[in-house]
Every structure is written in structure tokens, then in C-alpha cells.
Design a protein that fits this description.
By secondary structure, the protein is an alpha/beta fold. It is built from three helices and three strands.
Length: about 80
């Protein structure tokens, strides 16, 4: 998906690591909903994928009620520009 810059990982917790690693390996920035993953091994694998990809990867709590892309994406774009 060449037109995709970032991936939000909001699926079921047991799939966070697999999804985030796949996105990082595709060269996409990743935002992962807490919990980031379920095992230390998965956390280390995610960190290694992030380091290989040289992409931004963040984990945080997502507030699903009232979630607004208008308030989310400008801040993400600014963070990516600063980190690039």
C-alpha cells in the first residue's frame, strides 16, 4: 500500500505484535493500542522490527468514545515531520 504512511493497530490484543511487525516491515509508521503486546518476546520482536525499519512506533491508550481523526492526525503528522 504505497499511499499509506501509518497504521493504527486496534485489533484484538493477541494480534498486536503480528500486525505491528508486518506494518513496520512494510515501512509504515505504527501506533499500537495498549497493551502493546502480551509477551516480552513479542515486545522485543516489535522493537527489533521498529529498529530495522527506522519508523516511528508508539503505544498508547486509545479513547474509543469520541475518537476524532481531526484531532489525531495533525499531531501525528507533526511528530512524524519532526522525527524524520
Amino acid at each position: 500500500m504505497p499511499n499509506v504512511d501509518a497504521v493504527f493497530v486496534l485489533n484484538s490484543d493477541e494480534y498486536h505484535a503480528e500486525t505491528a511487525i508486518a506494518a513496520l516491515e512494510a515501512g509504515k509508521h505504527v501506533f499500537v493500542e495498549k497493551p502493546m503486546c502480551l509477551t516480552l518476546a513479542d515486545a522485543r520482536a516489535m522493537q527489533a522490527a521498529r529498529d530495522r525499519a527506522a519508523c516511528i512506533a508508539r503505544a498508547a491508550r486509545v479513547k474509543h468514545i469520541g475518537f476524532s481523526t481531526k484531532t489525531c492526525f495533525p499531531a501525528s503528522s507533526a511528530a512524524m515531520a519532526v522525527s524524520a
